[in-house]
Amino acid sequence: MVCGGFACSKNCLCALNLLYTLVSLLLIGIAAWGIGFGLISSLRVVGVVIAVGIFLFLIALVGLIGAVKHHQVLLFFYMIILLLVFIVQFSVSCACLALNQEQQGQLLEVGWNNTASARNDIQRNLNCCGFRSFNPNDTCLASCVKSGHPCSLCAPIIGEYAGEVLRFVGGIGLFFSFTEILGVWLTYRYRNQKDPRANPSAFL
């Protein structure tokens, strides 16, 4: 059967939602791995990653059930939610790619000042203390403090990777935003195709 047919639309939609399911489980697994190995101690960061993973899993589950059963209501809500996610994700991805070095520094400094646990993780893992300056009276978990060696500031070290990380995040976000608009189009087409099994209850 040609790809414009009912079966192909159904299979493509199922495959797309299986991809979303794998990504959601990967996000949850990465968050658990970071906590388990002590790489991340910030419950806020881990909570956000796990929440995104669960949200994506639920969306994929709704889309998968709607695609398998050709359920019009589930497909409609799936299409609307996916469209809203596309708008938000596309905007955030473009913002990540458009930030210059000065804006990146301001964003990093705001995050540094508002997340104490993440700040401690960065200082411990990158072996640095302070963002642009360091007060000896402040707490720093870097190994350089314990050994008595002079510690580097964290801003230059983070700045080396910030641009690459933002470009990577923006690129991944753009890729998945286009898969989301593809999912919206597939769902719209699939909803308006007649089931060859001619099941009258599929449109109830």
From TrEMBL:
Q: Which UniProt keywords apply?
A: Membrane, Transmembrane, Transmembrane helix
- GO cellular component terms given for this protein: plasma membrane
Localization, per the record, is:
Membrane
**Domain of life of the native organism:** Eukaryota
**Major location category of this protein:** membrane
Q: What Pfam families is this protein classified in?
A: Tetraspanin
Membrane topology term reads: Multi-pass membrane protein
Q: Which residue ranges does UniProt annotate as crossing the membrane?
A: 12-40, 46-68, 75-100, 168-188
Q: Does Transmembrane helix count among this protein's keywords?
A: yes
Molecular functions per Gene Ontology: calcium channel regulator activity
Q: Which InterPro entries match?
A: Tetraspanin/Peripherin (IPR018499)
Annotated GO biological processes are:
regulation of calcium ion transmembrane transport
Full protein name: Tetraspanin-13
Source organism:
Carlito syrichta (Philippine tarsier)
Corresponding gene?
A: TSPAN13
